Amino acid sequence: CYRENILKTAKALVEDTKLLVSGAASSQDKLAQAAQSSANTITQLAEVVKLGAASLGSDDPETQVVLINAIKDVAKALSDLIGATKGAASKPADDPSMYQLKGAAKVMVTNVTSLLKTVKAVEDEATRGTRALEATIEYIKQELTVFQSSEVPEKTSSPEESIRMTKGITMATAKAVAAGNSCRQEDVIATANLSRKAVADMLTACKQASYHPDVSEEVRERALHFGTECTLGYLELLEHVLLV
């Protein structure tokens, strides 16, 4: 029942995505209607996903987290898409903002597809861990793209904060190695959830610290380089766990 509702609502959201993209080239009224429609649809989708997560029961919290993370990714992608649509409104087809819009739309569709795959996998205990890991790998890749962009963070933090956040990577790495050894679905799901947060926190702290007023441009470049290298190394580790 929940799966059918999620599927139906997700399809509606994909249609809203198409309207948002086409709305950038049309009137402000059509754009506003498309934005409002997508906002309503994502609210409905979040509700049915939460009901689906609740139906799993409290004895499987890690899988509930996987579902909630999936809808959070879709909501974030929609927010980014609406922002990109606003930036591209009334611009010519070859304007850089139009390429950003297409990129945001692609991420949006990727995340909706990922949500549907996750919902399907939840019904099959044998694939839950694999799917959770695949979703986390996709999420980390998207976070790395944001990290590597020229966008300056809204706030800065101290280098000490960045160092503190690397401890989460150490813990998640140990968890990933243990999951690769045990191959138990629950261990793999827990690893996926922990990895997602650890890497995202590290990337945020690293970028904020690299833009601290006391940091030179040379040190900033090195910090951003090693933040990328750390993430790529961790992605390789997760790929190996997935292979196992």
TrEMBL record:
Talin IBS2B domain boundaries: 8-119, 129-241
Chain segments annotated as transmembrane: none
Major localization class: cytoplasm
GO cellular component: cytoplasm; focal adhesion; plasma membrane
GO biological process, one term: cell-cell adhesion
Subcellular location: Cytoplasm
A matching Pfam family: Talin_IBS2B
Coiled-coil residues: none
Keyword Coiled coil: no
Keywords from the named record: Cytoplasm
Claim: Nucleotide-binding is one of the keywords in the record: no
GO molecular function: actin filament binding; integrin binding
Protein name: TLN2 protein
Species this chain originates from: Scopus umbretta (Hammerkop)
Gene: Tln2_0
